[in-house]
Design goal:
It is found in: Nucleus. InterPro entries: Znf_C2H2_sf (IPR036236), Znf_C2H2_type (IPR013087). One of its GO terms (molecular function) is DNA-binding transcription factor activity, RNA polymerase II-specific. Residues 1-20 are annotated as: Disordered. This protein is an alpha+beta fold and 204 residues long. It folds into two domains: 19-73, Double Stranded RNA Binding Domain, CATH 3.30.160.60; 91-200. Helices cover 34% and strands 19% of the residues. It is built from five helices and 14 strands. A two-stranded antiparallel ribbon has the order 1-2. A two-stranded antiparallel sheet has the order 3-4. A two-stranded antiparallel ribbon has the order 5-8. Strand 1 and strand 2 form a beta hairpin. The model is unreliable at 77-86 (pLDDT under 50).
Length: 204
């Protein structure tokens, strides 16, 4: 077997060594990961908590399974529009001068896929930068993606967290490099997201 990431290889290698040092106090089964032990311990409880789907008759033993089912089986069809019209916050003043913020809402399909969302909003971002440059000699801009994550807690519930992933600030003097700068901004966001997932302790 081969692995693209070192941490995946380390996790796999634990299965081959004597690393199963998390033992169940009720049946002495051993696990090499503490989250697997917690999952196993729930099988000893008399009343197992279940999570029914409100859209169909399926029932799941874990909230994470229910969330995955809802994303894959009950997600709304993709809208023909690219994305909702940008929502612009009232302009204001800061130390750098006038600023404005544009908010973009993903389509139903883009809501679950960052790469698809970035592809959807790319033309709009390009147009906004061009429009701004037609009114000003130069502009500074950057992109921020707000992404909601979830993970299952040891007792079977789900907790949420919504971090932000930002690109570097770009100074745009003309329209010749806008496409390249947008691509660089998106790459920075994706790199930050990959780093978060690598060290994110189970967030999905």
């Amino acid at each position: 077997m081969s692995f693209s990431r070192k941490d995946n290889l380390k996790r796999h290698m634990k299965k081959h060594g004597d690393h199963a040092n998390h033992a169940c106090s009720q049946c002495n089964m051993k696990f090499y990961r503490v989250d697997k032990l917690r999952e196993h311990i729930r099988t000893h409880t008399r009343e197992k908590k279940t999570y029914p789907c409100e859209h169909c008759d399926q029932v799941f033993p874990r909230m994470s399974n229910l969330l995955r089912h809802k994303r894959t089986d009950h997600s709304a069809p993709s809208s023909p529009r690219i994305a909702a019209a940008p929502r612009v916050r009232n302009s204001g003043w800061n130390a750098l001068g006038v600023y404005s913020s544009h908010f973009m809402t993903p389509t139903p399909a883009g809501k679950w896929d960052l790469l698809l969302f970035l592809k959807e909003v790319r033309p709009q971002i390009h147009k906004m930068i061009v429009d701004e440059l037609q009114q000003k000699n130069s502009i500074k801009w950057y992109c921020v993606s707000k992404i909601r994550f979830s993970r299952e807690t040891p007792d079977g519930d789900v907790e949420y967290w919504t971090p932000y992933f930002s690109s570097k600030v770009v100074i745009e003097l003309d329209t010749s490099m806008i496409g390249d700068h947008i691509e660089q901004a998106f790459e920075k966001i994706k790199e930050s997201l990959d780093e978060f997932l690598k060290n994110g302790s189970g967030w999905v």
